[in-house]
Design a protein that fits this description.
62% of the residues lie in helices and 0% in strands. It is mainly alpha-helical.
Length: 120
């Protein structure tokens, strides 16, 4: 999904690049929560709601620090809303897309580093 988001960004399809980058974060947070707690979160799309269990569970991630501030201080975190996903004019600037890409890149990097190492 992140690769597709990057391709859309490189082709100046800012809104759809942001749309997919937002999903990268949403699914990344759900992956962390499910891997640590086996909690299913399919219907939650609000990033601040997904961060609540991550804040509690992050202490259990083996040997790797999840830098939640990279997520919570990001433009993506501030602007990702379910209803905005379907409004093509909302995220229609390169600067916004670039900021979203940076946040999604961190999430994918973090998930790659912890693959298979969630539990102590």
């Amino acid at each position: 999904m992140q690769r597709a988001s990057k391709i859309l960004h490189e082709n100046k399809s800012w809104h759809y690049a942001c749309y997919l980058a937002g999903y990268v974060i949403e699914m990344g947070l759900k992956t962390i929560i499910y891997s640590l707690d086996k909690k299913k979160l399919g219907k939650i799309h609000i990033l601040s709601e997904l961060m609540k269990p991550v804040n509690i569970l992050e202490k259990r991630i083996k040997g790797i620090t999840f830098k939640k501030d990279i997520i919570t201080n990001s433009r993506l975190y501030a602007e990702w809303k379910v209803e905005k996903r379907y409004e093509p004019a909302v995220w229609n600037e390169e600067e916004i897309s670039t900021a979203f890409q940076e946040t999604a890149t961190y999430m994918v990097s973090f998930l790659s580093n912890i693959h298979g190492e969630f539990f102590e």
